[in-house]
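step=encode ok
step=design start
structure_in=
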């Protein structure tokens, strides 16, 4: 938000026809916030920027997980899940794992907590700084996507980062997904197409999203 130029159209393509909100008004409000922040914040204030970045990551993490499935989690849950446990908490978790690992299955809440931590670690690993991301385009490959899936699925998905080996279909629908032997080739085509498009300096937001 600090650096965005907000180059929106008068009638943005992403704005539903029934939405009567004034896009220009929303952009002007955002620009006011942008101006106020730039006046009150020194870019060398490390503590402020760390707090701002951490808060941004927490909300981004909430959006990622909420958009993936119908889960009822809040920003408070995200913040609590990311808290580092004390020495006693680490010891008790280790002890319970040793004693009960063979007879207990992690509950939904524990799985969600682990997923929050996995996605958070992945975001930090890919983009150490949200303001100055350093991810060369040639790294946007299929193996990179598999690595991300392994990180996010760590201790949650037994075959994370591996291709599907069985024929599957959508629940309650007469639709069969792509055959397993075709997946790798099609995925390589997709990533190749994305790299070609993202290299273009004239690429528009609409085309990038639809790609």
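sequence_out=
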């Amino acid at each position: 938000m600090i650096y965005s130029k907000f180059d929106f159209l008068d009638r943005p393509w992403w704005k539903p026809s029934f939405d009567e909100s004034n896009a220009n008004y929303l952009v002007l409000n955002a620009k006011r916030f942008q101006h106020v922040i730039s006046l009150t914040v020194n870019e060398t204030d490390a503590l402020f920027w760390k707090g701002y970045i951490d808060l941004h990551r927490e909300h981004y993490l909430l959006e990622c997980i909420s958009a993936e499935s119908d889960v009822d989690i809040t920003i408070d849950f995200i913040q609590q899940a990311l808290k580092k446990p004390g020495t006693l908490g680490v010891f008790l978790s280790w002890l319970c794992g040793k004693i009960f690992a063979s007879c207990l299955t992690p509950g939904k809440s524990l799985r969600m907590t682990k997923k929050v931590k996995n996605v958070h670690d992945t975001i930090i690993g890919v983009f150490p700084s949200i303001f100055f991301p350093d991810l060369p385009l040639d790294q946007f490959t299929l193996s990179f996507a598999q690595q991300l899936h392994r990180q996010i699925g760590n201790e949650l998905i037994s075959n994370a980062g591996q291709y599907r080996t069985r024929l599957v279909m959508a629940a309650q629908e007469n639709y069969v997904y792509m055959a397993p032997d075709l997946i790798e080739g099609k995925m390589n085509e997709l990533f190749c197409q994305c790299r070609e498009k993202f290299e273009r300096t004239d690429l528009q937001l609409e085309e990038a999203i639809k790609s």
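step=design ok
step=annotate ok -> The CA atoms of residues 199 and 209 lie 14 Å apart.
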